[in-house]
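@channel sequence for tomorrow's demo:
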Amino acid sequence: MMLAMGAGIAQVTSLSSQHHGDTVLPADTVLPADTVLPGGEVAPVLPGENVLPVLPALRGLLPAGGLQRGSVVAAGCWSLLCLALAAGASADGAWCAVAGLPQFGVRAAADAGLDSDRLLLIADPGTGWPQVTASLLDGFEIVLLRPPQRPSAQLRRKIEAAVRRYASVLVVAGDWDGAAVRLRIARQEWTGLGDGHGRLRARRVQVVADGRGAWARPRARWLWLPGPDGSVATVTERAGDDLDAVAVSWQGRNTG
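structure tokens (generated this afternoon):
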């Protein structure tokens, strides 16, 4: 059952230990988590790695092919991308908390793959949102957060210290200076409309990722977000585009 809370939160205790699903590789196969498989896919995260799994379509956009514990991921404006980042781990048994998003849609979260039985919603954490965030990081493996304002460098460092201390993952709907990984929807195309008629059926988006260290070089991938069946998947064919090319300007306003 999904739990919803208001601005007040005294303490959140740890509800779940680490849990990883079975890998699709044979039992005797040993591959590092960032191994690239034929076709450009990243190897599934192996049990015991300090990484939370993500949906297959997102693996190539993240270091080690998943969400590294103790890290911050900035996902741009609130969108389905934020939910998709948490969906793989949620389906694998991770507990997820959402704070600062009163418009959060439980149905959309479930459609994206999040387990509503392992979901806590705090629509408005109030002025004490940093303390609320730290408590959530102690009790949940993934925290989706939209800060009410841009945090100061000192406050940001305190929250990042809590992320590392509790080995959780903080996914920020917005910008976050110093994030290990930053993802943005740079372009989008809707499908389903004909010549003035029809219904929107799916959306193709170009997601661009960069970050620190070896991830400083931007990389891009076209995804169905969502696809015609509501799922998140890689766009396998798209005429006139190199799906791995990064020809995106980071100037101006990004779409969500």
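heads up for whoever presents: The chain is about 15% helix and 25% strand.
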